[in-house]
Design goal:
The complex is a heterodimer of chains A (291) and B (98). Chain A is α/β, with parallel strands linked by helices and 291 residues long. Chain A has 2 domains: 13-253, 2-enoyl-CoA Hydratase, Chain A, domain 1, CATH 3.90.226; 255-291, no CATH class. Helices cover 42% and strands 12% of the residues of chain A. Chain A has helices spanning 3-12, 21-28, 48-51, 90-108, 129-146, 165-172, 189-196, 206-213, 215-220, 232-245, 256-265, 274-283, and strands at 35-37, 62-69, 72-79, 115-118, 152-156, 175-178, 226-227. The two termini of chain A are 35 Å apart. Chain B is an alpha+beta fold and 98 residues long. Helices cover 31% and strands 33% of the residues of chain B. A 5-stranded mixed β-sheet of chain B has the order 1-4-5-3-2, with helices on one face. The chains are: A alpha/beta (291), B alpha+beta (98). Chain A binds chain B through residues 20-21, 39-41, 45, 50, 53-58, 61, 80, 82-84, and chain B through 1, 18, 20, 23-26, 28, 30, 32, 34, 46-48, 74, 76-78.
Chain lengths: 291, 98
């Protein structure tokens, strides 16, 4: 493809990342098939933020759409990364759990209802501390209830990424999709630097951060399933192909022994960089990759 | 944080439907617009930035000098500039009119 074609394709693509949480969720569902649950006019907003001088959002930064993908039921739960860093509070946590639990109920009763989680989040909302932590625990329980009955797909598109407690939710999902711009990690770069010093991790070194937490490395390490280009069609196609695969025979988070043996096998006599890590990881690959 | 309320009793044209636009992101805000329960229009604002009541008042005076609709507007704001506020209001009115 010549430069001009590449530029025209870039201009005319429908970016997924540039959509807000609601737009992203709507783009994945069949047109006209969905309705929003507990939307902005339900006014289920955080009671805790105004007490601390922070403006709340009428949907608490969590959009839940129930609809259809290729005519089959699905629920999409989408976090708004631009509101309070997509953080999980009491209300947004309760919305996620209720949506997942309804999907579980429907799936058990014979209508398989996969869940798609669009995670743009720094994790627990600090202003709601313990309630946010409890919410993450409840979301994890709800994901574990649903995933034997219907696939749970996590999408991390960017640019906030998925960190903190919600990275555990990504890890427990049936499948994870990422873009090159997205990041997935337990502790965010600033947190690691603050706790262990700049020698351990320089949070201003963007190349380092993306080499470790970025989508390409996460897919390369088998911690995410596919790298998706930033356009709406690529995401709808990727989601459909994962839904067609159905529930994985073994979930990634069940492979405790596999991961333990891989970590033990690493040669760390010298500091290894992300590329070397991936190379050593690959050598340990069994037939068919991580799963 | 600051809460404020304005009323525009002269905006009496009946409207139907409702609309939600915007995100409470840094320098942005969300607008919820729906038919008013009483005659005239009302505006309720929750903003994270204190001390700009007269600026808000000026923006809404101007908006309702051009827009006639008995609407209830609720805003959650995270430091949107007056220009952004006006654009969000026009967007909300446009989505409502569809």
């Amino acid at each position: 493809m010549n430069t001009e074609d590449t530029i025209m394709e870039f201009i005319h693509r429908r970016s997924f990342i540039e959509l807000d949480a609601r737009g992203r969720a709507q783009s994945l569902l069949d047109e006209g098939s969905f309705k929003e649950l507990a939307g902005p006019f339900a006014r289920m907003q955080s009671p805790w933020l105004p007490m601390q001088g922070v403006a709340p959002q009428s949907d608490d930064g969590c959009v839940v759409l129930k609809g259809k993908i290729d005519g089959k039921p699905a629920v999409v739960i989408s976090l708004e990364g631009k509101f309070q860093g997509g953080s999980i509070g009491e209300v947004s946590g309760a919305k996620i759990c209720a949506a997942l639990d309804l999907a579980t109920r429907d799936s058990v009763q014979g209508t398989p209802t996969p869940a798609i989680l669009l995670l743009e989040t720094g994790g627990v909302r600090l202003q709601e501390a313990n309630l946010g932590l409890a919410a993450v625990a409840e979301v994890i329980a709800s994901v574990l209830s649903l995933r034997p009955h219907a696939p749970v797909i996590t999408i991390i598109a960017g640019t906030v990424g998925c960190f903190g407690g919600m990275s555990l939710v990504a890890g427990l999902s049936s499948y994870v999709l990422m873009t090159r711009e997205a990041r997935l990690g337990l502790n965010g770069p600033e947190v690691i630097e603050q706790e262990s010093g700049v020698d351990e991790f320089d949070s201003k070194d963007r190349a380092l951060i993306w080499a470790i937490d970025g989508g390409e490395q996460r897919v390369g390490m088998g911690l995410a399933d596919a790298l998706v280009e930033d356009n709406v069609e690529a995401f709808t196609t990727a989601v459909r192909s994962l839904l067609a695969k159905g529930i994985p025979a073994v979930h990634r988070s069940e492979l405790v022994d596999c991961y333990r043996s891989r970590i033990e096998a690493l040669d760390v006599t010298e500091q290894i960089d992300p590329a070397e890590l991936r190379a050593q990881w690959r050598q340990a690959d069994v037939e068919g990759g991580v799963r | 944080m600051e809460n404020m309320e304005f009323k525009y009793p002269k905006a009496t044209r009946r409207v139907t439907g409702r609309a939600h636009v915007g995100v409470v992101a840094s320098g942005d805000m969300e607008v919820l617009i729906e038919p008013s329960q009483s005659t005239g229009a009302s505006v309720t604002i929750t903003t994270s930035v204190r001390g700009f009541q007269s600026t808000w008042q000026a923006v809404f005076d101007r908006f309702f000098s051009r827009y006639d609709g008995a609407v209830r507007i609720v805003i959650n704001d995270s430091g949107a500039t007056p220009g952004s506020v006006m654009l969000r209001l026009q967007q909300a009115a446009e989505v409502l009119g569809k």
